[in-house]
Amino acid sequence: MTRVLLTGFEPFAGSAVNPSWQAVSLVAADPPPGAEVTAVRLPCVFGTALDELAAAVAEADPDLVLCVGQAGGRPGVTVERVAINVDDARIPDNAGRRPIDEPVVEGGPAAYFASLPVKACVAAVREAGIPAAVSQTAGTFVCNHVFYGLAHLIATERPALRGGFVHLPYAPEQVVDGAEPALPAAMAADALRAIIGAAVSTRTDLRVAEGATH
């Protein structure tokens, strides 16, 4: 069995739900074959989210960590390639904090790449019939904060651990006017199961074009 830690976020910015926690909860209730899944809901708060992530990793002792967040407006599931060492909050977090141009980790590297086969993960989601893409930016809000913190933890304390970050579109109930793309929670959960499967079975990533021109 592969021990998998999944994290999602609490709602933020006035929303009643967060699709990341909806999907993570469904996967924990019905994990993919060969995976033992622990699910943890993180606060949408700078600093505190990293503390709770580190505690969850220490308790679960996972082989794989997949952190999941919301990226409203994106049309499909996006697997993040890189985390950058900056917090630059356009809106306050749930504790009212709004860091601007501050490092996630003082003195840390400018960036880390995900230690997952991001292109193979995207291919697996598409094979499941769900739209997906590689993302070249996780933003500069709490999602990137957690992604960078996870990558730094792996680089400095747990080199055998593999991990990465996935963004999900809005849940349908968040876009009742139909103005933004949305993905049902069950499909989002299926996408996460496909990503777990690809991450567990693939050590050398696919060499296919998934870049961006802007």
Automatic annotation (TrEMBL):
- Asked if the record carries the keyword Iron, the reply is no
Gene3D superfamilies recorded for this chain?
Peptidase C15, pyroglutamyl peptidase I-like (3.40.630.20)
Which CDD domains does the entry link to? Peptidase_C15
Q: Catalyzes what? A: Release of an N-terminal pyroglutamyl group from a polypeptide, the second amino acid generally not being Pro
**Pfam families hit by this protein:** Peptidase_C15
| Purpose of the protein | Removes 5-oxoproline from various penultimate amino acid residues except L-proline.
Please state which protein family the record places this protein in.
Belongs to the peptidase C15 family.
Q: What is this protein called?
A: Pyrrolidone-carboxylate peptidase
Gene for this chain: pcp
